[in-house]
């Protein structure tokens, strides 16, 4: 007689199917089955590890079965790593429900996160799987998700502005993402947002089952080997405290595994697509060999991982969205650009923090390269912008006048000291300043006369006298309508812009108070000094090179030793605390008034648009300034580099000089930069 299953067995079997926990599924495998990409060339398709094989190990560190509490990703642009934090949120909602805090710096970034990134990913994921995990947004019940809070059974994802104290308060969370971590800044009156963020995890610190992902491109390297110094890049600090894993790839010739070092990347300046990476065995690795090697690479910690959390470095050398050619183009662009361009190369391409250069060049070497034919008080042929930097002291005023070209080459036009008491804004010495600068015209190389485009005056000494002088003598540029005189305030610290947003300050002088009587412009002096010293180290024609490179500094043979001593009077000094380097700071070794003047002049050309002006606009400006056709062609402002042999056999960047012959310039399109006379020339 056949038997029938008892009710007890039947119920037990049904319950077992319901309560059985899901089989373990690492995050990397879950992403491949669930995450639908919503932008880029692969939009509409599922995430695939073959496009970024280095992400698999990182993703699997984020699962609850991995014992770590913090995962750090120090990354470049175009690495594909940003998708991990977003995909992890969806994985948490379905597989490991827990309250999750996702913080980004700033309201604009927060709006982009919720509207352009996470929201579309949720919609595409749920449409692909046919499951509704994240509750939809509702307007009446109050039970559904909102723009900044995505609810699911067992928890929520709270989206927060890392710069707002209320967004980082009154929450208890188990999982967290600190996105663009390097750009987090202290909250006035409340301190470090990282401390506030970590406070949300207090309930899980004893059990140590919380998990935080830190991800960001890096910023500034203060020189502190531990990363603990104030102002040091946050993501680099976290990476230095981790086990510092690098993606090692095999050389196709010797088979040895290595992590890419920017110093071994050999750029072909004439043909960037032929750029190669030099293995220590001597083999020059090609782009096709790089791609194959990246696919079979492996993570290797650079330090003993015992007691350390996992940290990963991702740069564009291992990104399959980039190429050696694209990286070479970035290198060429950075070498032709400013200090900011070099910083961008290190931060966004190499994925490393940028250490500003601060070794002052030898003033005697600068004297040796002085040029004949550069006349004092005359504007050279390549000088399209003419500016003055002014440093006011108790008994006199230091002035430097410089001309600047489109490729950042610059020429000293004049420098002088005006003796006299600076205690009053209408003192004779200030009248002499006007007579020698704004009321003066300067002959150029083509028989025309030029006037200053802007003048910056330091307010660090006699502040209210300078405020009053600027207010009483302010005038607008006849072409641009912009202020001709800028009261500037030099600011210490790394990461500050060359020239920031002005604020209105009160003038308090001789018992009279004028509310908001003057605009004060902040100037980030530390980065500008580093940029200047980098340019002063460059070698040009006077040193035997074929051409003068972008950023090259020209001096006439009329310049004396005292000028060069002041220009090179500061250096970067390591800050030592208990025997460890905790940062770097500028320290003077003598009078530095003319160095300050040069720094303010560099800020002025950024104020005038040096970094944002297009080649067509430069050509139009050159024509408006009376330069002949052979010096105002667009081609001169977009030179193509070529390779000259160097002493060590490596390539040297060569940019066509200003005097090179050029084709007849093309006329700008109607309504272009200078078709409106010379108005709005920046």
Automatic annotation (TrEMBL):
InterPro entries: GpA_ATPase (IPR046453), GpA_endonuclease (IPR046454)
One Gene Ontology molecular-function label: ATP hydrolysis activity
Superkingdom: Bacteria
Annotated ranges, domain Terminase large subunit GpA endonuclease: 310-611
Region Disordered, annotated ranges: 659-682
Start and end residues of each Phage terminase large subunit GpA ATPase domain: 46-299
Protein name, as recorded: Terminase
Originating species: Methylobacterium soli
């Amino acid at each position: 007689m056949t038997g029938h299953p008892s009710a007890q067995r039947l119920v037990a079997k049904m319950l077992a199917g319901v309560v059985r926990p899901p089989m373990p599924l690492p995050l990397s495998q879950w992403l491949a089955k669930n995450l639908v990409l919503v932008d880029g060339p692969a939009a509409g398709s599922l995430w695939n590890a073959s496009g970024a094989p280095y992400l698999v190990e990182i993703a699997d560190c984020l699962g609850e079965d991995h014992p770590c509490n913090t995962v750090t990703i120090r990354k470049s642009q175009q690495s594909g790593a940003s998708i991990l934090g977003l995909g992890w949120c969806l994985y948490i909602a379905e597989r490991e429900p827990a309250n999750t805090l996702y913080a980004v710096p700033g309201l604009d970034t927060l709006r982009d996160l919720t509207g352009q990134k996470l929201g579309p990913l949720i919609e595409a994921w749920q449409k692909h799987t046919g499951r509704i995990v994240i509750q939809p947004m509702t307007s009446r019940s109050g039970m559904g998700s909102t723009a900044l809070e995505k609810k699911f059974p067992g928890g929520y994802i709270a989206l927060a502005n890392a710069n707002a104290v209320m967004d980082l308060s009154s929450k208890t969370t188990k999982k967290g993402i600190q996105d663009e971590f390097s750009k987090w800044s202290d909250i006035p009156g409340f301190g470090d947002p990282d401390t506030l963020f970590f406070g949300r995890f207090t309930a899980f610190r004893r059990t140590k089952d919380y998990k935080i992902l830190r991800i960001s491109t890096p910023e500034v390297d203060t020189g502190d080997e531990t990363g603990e110094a104030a102002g040091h890049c946050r993501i680099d600090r976290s990476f230095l405290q981790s086990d510092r894993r690098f993606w090692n790839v095999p050389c196709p010739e010797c088979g040895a595994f290595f992590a890419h070092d920017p110093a071994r990347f050999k750029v072909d300046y004439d043909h960037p697509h032929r750029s190669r990476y030099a293995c220590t065995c001597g083999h020059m690795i090609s782009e096709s060999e790089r791609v194959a090697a990246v696919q079979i690479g492996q993570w290797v910690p650079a330090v003993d991982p015992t007691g350390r959390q996992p940290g990963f470095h991702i740069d564009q050398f291992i990104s399959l969205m980039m190429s050696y050619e694209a990286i070479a183009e970035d290198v060429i662009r950075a070498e032709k650009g400013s200090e900011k361009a070099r910083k961008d190369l290190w931060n966004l391409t190499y994925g490393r923090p940028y250490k500003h250069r601060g070794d002052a060049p030898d003033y005697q070497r600068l004297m040796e390269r002085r040029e004949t034919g550069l006349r004092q008080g005359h504007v050279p042929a390549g000088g399209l912008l003419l500016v003055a930097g002014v440093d006011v002291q108790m008994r006199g005023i230091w002035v430097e006048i410089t001309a600047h070209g489109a490729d950042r080459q610059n020429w000293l036009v004049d420098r002088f000291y005006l003796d006299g008491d600076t205690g009053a804004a209408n003192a004779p010495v200030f009248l002499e300043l006007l007579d020698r600068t704004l009321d003066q015209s300067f002959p150029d190389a083509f028989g025309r006369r030029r006037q200053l485009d802007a003048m910056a005056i330091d307010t660090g000494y006699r502040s209210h006298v300078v405020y009053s002088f600027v207010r009483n003598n302010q005038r607008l540029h006849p072409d641009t309508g912009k202020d001709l005189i800028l009261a500037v305030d030099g600011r210490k610290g790394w990461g500050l812009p060359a020239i920031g947003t002005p604020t209105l300050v009160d003038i308090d002088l001789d018992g009279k108070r004028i509310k908001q009587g003057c605009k004060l412009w902040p100037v980030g002096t530390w980065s500008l000094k580093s940029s200047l010293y980098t340019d002063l180290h460059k070698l040009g024609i006077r040193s035997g090179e074929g051409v003068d490179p972008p950023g090259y500094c020209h001096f006439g043979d009329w310049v004396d030793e005292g000028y060069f001593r002041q220009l090179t009077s500061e250096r970067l000094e390591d800050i030592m605390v208990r025997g460890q380097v905790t940062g770097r700071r500028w320290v003077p070794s003598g009078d530095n008034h003319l160095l300050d003047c040069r720094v303010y002049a560099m800020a002025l050309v950024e104020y005038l648009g040096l970094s944002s002006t297009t080649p067509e606009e430069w050509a139009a400006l050159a024509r408006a300034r009376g330069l002949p056709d052979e010096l105002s062609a667009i081609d001169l402002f977009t030179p193509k580099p070529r390779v000259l042999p160097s002493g060590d056999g490596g390539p040297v960047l060569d940019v066509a000089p200003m005097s090179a012959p050029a084709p007849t310039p093309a006329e700008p399109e109607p309504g272009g930069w200078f078709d409106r006379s010379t108005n709005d020339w920046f």
